[in-house]
Design a protein that fits this description.
With 309 residues, this protein is mainly α. The chain has 11 helices and 2 strands. Helix 5 packs across helix 7.
């Protein structure tokens, strides 16, 4: 039996962040309010994530520090700063690269943000997929896959170069057709909130929406440590592209723990922040496209993923 507080957290957490806080961000951006309000909303989302992970943890052990919390906070600070800097740079980019002004300014602000999310979702998903297939990209993406516990801050636990490539793929097409700064600001907040939800250590419920929205139930499969097995569920916001690319995977009977996360090919991946920044540039940080490995929990193998050597 779950308590009333746990029930509220289980069924209310996702709507509160996905609709409530994103909606607040859209309202702030549409009104042209100071951008620090978006940072306040993001801080509220992070605080809510930490609270809910303690009320309804998927795995209570994942709430305990493993000498990684400080590192993860640095990753978050650096990568969120990069996202905000990219938004601030849009007017400059627009001046350098004149856009054809194809942006649908006549649409409602909410529709403009939703359209930006769908376009960004496609670009980021494609780069994410490529990062599991191309050795050079995997060098940097491997930082994200080195995690052995699944919690909110993991979403921005990325090498800044890979974060930049992903965001460029998602946002550059939008900038080229005249993306307004206010829409970009709402999109940046949506990305941060989505990453919190996608990597959350909260045992929340979203019903059949788990087959469409790229949230934690599906994303855990992406972090399975065996080459090939984790090449699934690449979407950031939705799983639409995964269904179309046949990379969607879900098994309701599956339970996850730390022994299934990380990289089987590189269990001793560096854990310090500076070491993770430098490792992709070293000889040992290289990789090859390894053969698919068997998942001992299913006894099967699937497509290939870059294996760090």
């Amino acid at each position: 039996m779950i308590t009333a507080v746990q029930a509220v957290a289980r069924y209310g957490y996702v709507p509160f962040l996905l609709i409530g806080l994103n909606g607040a961000g859209i309202a702030v951006a549409a009104a042209g309010a100071p951008k620090y309000w978006l940072l306040i909303i993001l801080a509220a989302a992070i605080a809510t994530a930490f609270l809910v992970e303690r009320i309804i943890p998927y795995d209570p052990q994942w709430n305990h520090d493993r000498a990684d919390t400080t590192r993860d906070r640095i990753h978050v600070a650096v990568n969120e700063t990069l996202i905000l800097a990219s938004v601030a740079a849009i007017p400059l980019l627009a001046a350098i690269v004149p856009a054809p002004q194809l942006w649908p300014h006549s649409w409602s602000f909410v529709a403009q943000v939703l359209a930006a999310i769908l376009v960004a979702d496609f670009g980021i998903t494609v780069v994410h997929l490529a990062s599991h297939k191309i050795g050079l990209l995997w060098r940097f993406h491997a930082v994200h896959h080195s995690i052995t516990r699944f919690y909110g801050l993991n979403g921005l636990m990325k090498h800044p170069l890979h974060q930049t490539v992903e965001m460029a793929a998602g946002v550059a097409p939008l900038i080229l057709i005249g993306l307004p700064v206010d829409v970009a600001s709402a999109l940046a907040l949506a990305v941060a909130i989505q990453l919190l939800l996608q990597h959350s250590n909260a045992d929340y419920r979203i019903g059949p929406a788990k087959y469409v929205l790229a949230l934690n139930e599906g994303h855990r499969f992406h972090h399975l440590k065996w080459a090939g097995i984790g090449d699934v569920n690449f979407g950031l916001f939705t799983l639409v592209w995964d269904h179309l690319m046949r990379t969607f995977s879900y098994d309701p009977a599956r339970r996850f723990d730390s022994t299934q996360l990380g990289m089987a090919a590189k269990p001793d991946y560096p854990t310090g922040y500076l070491a993770q920044l430098l490792y992709p540039f070293t000889g040992s940080g290289g990789c090859h496209l390894g053969s698919a490995q068997s998942d001992p929990h299913r006894g099967s193998a699937s497509s290939t993923r870059g294996s760090v050597t």
